[in-house]
TrEMBL record, chain A:
InterPro entries: DUF3278. This is DUF3278 domain-containing protein. Keywords: Membrane, Transmembrane, Transmembrane helix. The lineage of its organism: Bacteria, Bacillati, Bacillota, Bacilli, Lactobacillales. It holds the Pfam family DUF3278. The chain crosses the membrane at residues 35-56, 62-81, 109-128, 140-159.
Automatic annotation (TrEMBL), chain B:
PROSITE patterns: HTH_CROC1. It comes from Apilactobacillus kunkeei. Coiled coil: none annotated. It comes from the Bacteria. Pfam families: HTH_3. This is Putative HTH-type transcriptional regulator. InterPro entries: Cro/C1-type_HTH, Lambda_DNA-bd_dom_sf. Keywords: DNA-binding. The lineage of its organism: Bacteria, Bacillati, Bacillota, Bacilli, Lactobacillales.
């Protein structure tokens, strides 16, 4: 069955390794709707809170708070989606022999490292600006190295869970 | 929903992965359908029946339930 570019994007974004059949679609739609409602409520509330807070606090502090809150909400949404995907085993690869296991294993490692490098390189500039604003310029490089090592360990753990016998 | 997918698939000597591939679903989804833990759409039911060379009544109709 041919998958559209959008379906491929959805699968890549959520780390789904199986055919995007109706079961996977139901699971993703259900979780996606819950996240969308949560985000809409959060955006509305944060916009109202901003309008009020900006009256008493300095705009720079309010913006800093909003950035941190946005990142926190993004993490919650990602964690929720990951939990749903893991619970329904949509991230598990289905392979029948050793050759397929090796191919899927390689594909898994390459795609995860590609995503990590892309994300970190995109995030590098805004985060370094943010660190400079906080007066923590000397912590930029160690933080990135720490993040990178942490992500590599997470990728390896996930690889072991799925591909090691 | 109780069904006879596993029974008929075994009788037809079709492997789970082959049936899943032929109807465009994952093995996990087919396993859930066979266990009655996931209710497939009519379109998928029809495709499964077609792949197993049978009909919807034979696969999914439970005579014990009124």
């Amino acid at each position: 069955m041919k998958e559209s570019l959008f379906i491929k994007l959805v699968k890549y974004f959520y780390g789904i390794s199986k055919p995007f059949d109706e079961f996977a679609r139901d699971v993703i739609n259900d979780a996606g709707n819950k996240i969308a409602i949560g985000l809409m409520v959060y955006l509305l509330m944060s916009a109202y809170a901003l309008m009020v807070l900006i009256r008493w606090f300095s705009p720079m502090n309010v913006v800093s708070g909003v950035i941190m809150a946005d990142i926190f909400v993004h993490l919650i949404a990602s964690a929720y989606m990951s939990r749903i995907i893991r619970k329904n085993k949509l991230d598990c690869y289905e392979f029948d022999n050793e050759e397929e296991r090796k191919i899927y294993g390689k594909r898994f490692i390459i795609s995860r490292i590609f995503t990590t490098v892309l994300t970190l390189s995109l995030a590098m500039y805004p985060i370094s600006v943010w660190f400079r604003y906080l007066g923590m310029s000397e912590s930029i490089f160690p933080s990135f190295i720490g993040c990178f090592i942490g992500i590599l360990v997470a990728i390896y753990t996930q690889y072991c869970r799925q591909f090691k016998k | 929903m109780e069904n006879r997918v596993r029974e008929i698939r075994t009788k037809e000597n079709v492997q789970q992965k082959d049936l899943a591939k032929s109807v465009g679903i994952s093995r996990q989804t087919l396993s859930l359908i066979e266990k009655g833990e996931y209710n497939p759409s009519l379109k998928l039911c029809f495709n499964i029946a077609k792949a197993l060379k049978t009909d919807l009544n034979t696969l999914f109709w439970n005579e014990g339930v009124e």
